Amino acid sequence: VQLVESGGGLVQPGEPLRLSCTASGFTFSSYYMSWYRQAPGKERDLVATISPAAGIINYADSVKGRFTISRDNVKNVVYLQMKNLEPEDTAVYYCYARRYESIYWGQGTQVTVSS
């Protein structure tokens, strides 16, 4: 089982960025997929969740209207489109998969928002 995040980097405030998480080794289309983030010295927080068929999508209040989660069940990829990034969005972003008691984490990708 693998969850591999990509797309992180250094951007200036107000710029967009898209993260991708490519899954393998499990039935991706049956899993809820989420993005979490963890800033230095802080707890890991839930950013967004999408249900297996994308019928249910939820966001943390801090990213509503700026971030969009989506998935491609053919390519086994979940995306996080981020716009109007703020310095407070700086964190390591993790991909997360869950189906009942079956849980997987990616290794994380760094997003730094700084001028």
Would you write up a description of this structure?
- It is a single chain.
- This protein is an all-beta fold.
- The protein is built from no helices and eleven strands.
- The chain has strands at residues 2-6, 9-11, 17-24, 32-38, 44-50, 57-59, 67-72, 77-82, 91-99, 102-105, 109-113.
The number of helical segments is: 0
Instruction: Please write the string of helix (H) and strand (E) elements.
Output: EEEEEEEEEEE
- Kindly estimate the percentage of residues that lie in beta strands according to DSSP: over 45%
Rounded to an integer, what's the Rg over CA atoms? 13 Å
Structural class: mainly beta
What's the number of extended β-strand segments?
11
How are the SSEs placed, and which strands pair?
Elements: E1 2-6, E2 9-11, E3 17-24, E4 32-38, E5 44-50, E6 57-59, E7 67-72, E8 77-82, E9 91-99, E10 102-105, E11 109-113
Parallel strand pairs: 2-11
Antiparallel strand pairs: 1-3, 3-8, 4-5, 4-9, 5-6, 7-8, 9-10, 9-11
